[in-house]
Structures are given as structure tokens and as C-alpha cells.
Amino acid sequence: MDGESDTSSSRGSTRREEGKNQQVAVFCSSLIPGLGQIYNGETVKGFIFLFSTVVGLFLLLIPGLIIWIYSMYEAHITAGKMNEGTLESAPVKPLIVVIFVIAAIFLAIIVVIVFLMVVISLMVSQLGPAGNTDFFRMLDASRKLF
């Protein structure tokens, strides 16, 4: 009996490793666009979804959201096809996942910095030439407080 339970438990874990959970794929893509594709073993497609979503969100909000939602849908469909056997299932590579998450964080930081630079430059440009001196006086005053 011990041999049978060991065999069934090892088969159960093998089955889990081979199949892709569709909900996990969707959840991964909802956290970071393209992460569901990385989970499915489609590295290039994952990076394409990440970069296209960032560009879409940065330029125009709606296209970026559409790409993000489509990445969730595509990760779900691809995981299902892998489970059916119509697509070859690829293993999850932890190093690729780490590189992908670092790239996503790096892109997010760049987008925030560029956004802040644009907003600040627009605010300063609204001050006009005379307002710039007032702005720098306020900046000096705030530095003296701290």
C-alpha cells in the first residue's frame, strides 16, 4: 500500500507540473502585463505584451488598458490549449520570471520619472518668466525649513 500511495502522489504532482492553471495565468497577467505569458513559457510574447502595454498606457490610456486586458485573455486561452494538448507546454523558468519582474519594475520607475518631469515642466512653464523667480524663492524657502 505504501508503494501505491507514493506512486499516486508522485503522479498527482507530475500532473500539476505538466498542466497550466488558467486562473494563475490570468492572475499573473493582471498583476503585470505579459507575466501570464511568461508563466505559460512564452518569453518573447510576454516581453512584447509588457512593452506594448507600457507604451499604450504612456501615450494613450485606453490602448494600454486594451492590450493589458487582451494579455489576460490570451494567457487564459493559451494555458487552456496547453492543457488540451493543442499547444506544447513549456516549463516555467524562474530566472526568466525574475528578469521579467525586474524589467517591469524598471519600466514602471522610468514611466513615473518621465511623467513627473512632464508635469513639473508644465507647471513651471505656466509660471512665466516673472513666476520663475517666485518659484525659485519658494524653493529656497522650503530648503531652509528642512
In N-to-C order, the SSE pattern is: HHHHHH
Q: Sheet with the most strands? A: none
Distance between the termini: 73 Å
General form:
elongated
Outline the secondary-structure elements.
Elements: H1 2-18, H2 22-31, H3 35-39, H4 43-59, H5 61-84, H6 94-145
What does this structure look like?
The chain is an all-alpha fold and 146 residues long. It has one domain. The chain contains six helices and no strands. It has helices spanning 2-18, 22-31, 35-39, 43-59, 61-84, 94-145. Helix 4 runs antiparallel to helix 5 (61-84) and helix 4 runs parallel beside helix 6. It is elongated and about 70 Å long. The model is unreliable at 1-16 (pLDDT under 50).
Which properties best describe this structure?
mainly alpha, 6 helices, disordered N terminus
Quick synopsis:
The protein is an all-alpha fold and 146 residues long. The protein is built from 6 helices and no strands.
